[in-house]
Write the structure tokens for this entry.
Amino acid sequence: MNPQTAISPYGQKPWCDQLVQAKALLKDVFGYDTFRPLQEEIIAHTLGKRDALVVMPTGGGKSLCYQIPALLSPGLTIVVSPLISLMKDQVDQLRECGVPAVFLNSSLIASEYRRHMGQLTTREAKLLYLAPEALLNPRTLSLLSTLAVAAFAIDEAHCISAWGHDFRPEYRKLAAVRASFPQAVCTALTATATPRVREDIKNSLRIEGTHEFIGAFNRPNLFLEVAPKAAPLQQILGLLRKYPNESGIIYCASRQQTDDLYGALKKKGYAVRPYHAGLPEGERIRNQEMFTRDDIQIIVATIAFGMGINKSNVRFVIRHDLPQSLDAYYQEIGRAGRDGLPAHCLLLFSYGDIHKVKYFIQQKNGHEQMVANSLLNTLLGFAETDLCRRIPLLRYFGESGVPDRCGRCDNCLLEKKDQVDITIPAQMFLSCVKRTGELFGAGHIIDVLRGSKSQQTLKFDHDGLSTYGIGTHLTARQWRHLARQFAHQGLLTHELEHGSMKLTPKAWEILRGKELVMGRLEEAGADFRKAGESEVLDYDPALFDRLRKKRKDLADEKGLPPFAVFHDRTLREMAAHLPRTRESLARIYGVGSTKIDKYGSIFLAIIQNFSGGTHENN
């Protein structure tokens, strides 16, 4: 069957007859024998001219849910995609199947743009790929008003929600565009959406509550592992030795870390390339193409890489640094094992990374900061859990019936966890939650337990509670670790709007002494201030080395010993706290106004360049 000739006739048939044709197109155009779970139901729903929210894991086959209806319906389907760099790949793949698709963006030369416009005006094209910014352009809207727009497919729809991990304001404006084409059916698609984000998407696009299709989030072929970040290069090399000549992605938090790791792996003889927003666009495109085409095996990248990448044979995904959220991490590991074969997902976890993430969170406004802190706490719960890792992961996305053991994560493979009885700390914490009215977050509860004289503690007279100061035997970090375990074991629920914690019925059984709580009590870390001693920080050693090299160069120029410029402690605090302004630099140990005048701009520039890629979106 030739899809070019099949398009027009199918658009005139009842949708029940079109389903028969959909199955034929599935095989003849796309080469698949059977639909994957939910695909047939979604296609039938769409052909019935009903809007839908589709949530499927990466590799679950979301694209066919709008591509096949586009071929079967009269008119044009608009596909909204956030990354320009992916549109050509998506359109090329469709054209290879004989599907008439085009895209319009700034990467096209004048002659290509005119050719694509011609295919639209002659009604030859069935799918048009646009970035949200392009769709919102008045010229584009004017063009579309002259065409028969049959459907909108909004990919990466989680970007609509302010409660998601990748909110983009321009996505929020798509609802107004959609209202200008009331006859067009709308399908919103994403791989990562919590129940709250799903509600936000439906409300924004006015999709009826019952019109949602939620696929299983579990990817049983993925092995999930979280390892303490000790010697990251050696840990990465250890995993690479298990997958010789296999494709894999290594994610880093910053551009500098990406370049450094790329250089180290290249010296070891690996076929590897870097990818981040600081590289010229042409180089990024070449590196991605080499990876996609198996000309290289490994790509080392920031979060600028990978959204929507259609490479099926990725055998491992390594996270060198802490991601921003569990949503983002699920999306990243979703790029592994899309062919259904086993793949390895390794997260290197360091408490030093938390400091860096929290620094960037502090730069956000009030609401964004609250959401980001909530997302970070959920991620830490996944990283620190002693349970099967799929329990917090799948529950986060609202999936029920999660088994106690998956057999495909590091925790499940351990014969015995180092668990101890933590019932007494649990009773202390839960009692404090109750006595403070179930109105506060973990930070305030910990302040009360540790006898803090914080402004909030005194404001609410919580220094007079019976639980005030009863938890000084544990550090704040130990209490935070315990609090996340209590939440994972179902003793606490979090009210996201205000960050407060509530006791569950199970918590009352603990308070009444009817059940024990088993868990892991973390050793008191070395990164907390001891009496009479300075704080030992979790700092980034790579950044520290870079700062130290610059200090040596400056000292050599002046004939001074390096410590005359800055002490090691000063550089370590810079590498831990990442100051970005003269004011924040002034709060670093050993930095006075004279040294700020002499060296401030130099060292701030190094810190800026090192950490500048942490929140890349393009």
Remarks:
- Residues 366-384 form the longest helix (19 residues).
- Confidence is low (pLDDT under 50) at residues 1-13, 525-536, 613-618.
- The two ends are 39 Å apart (CA to CA).
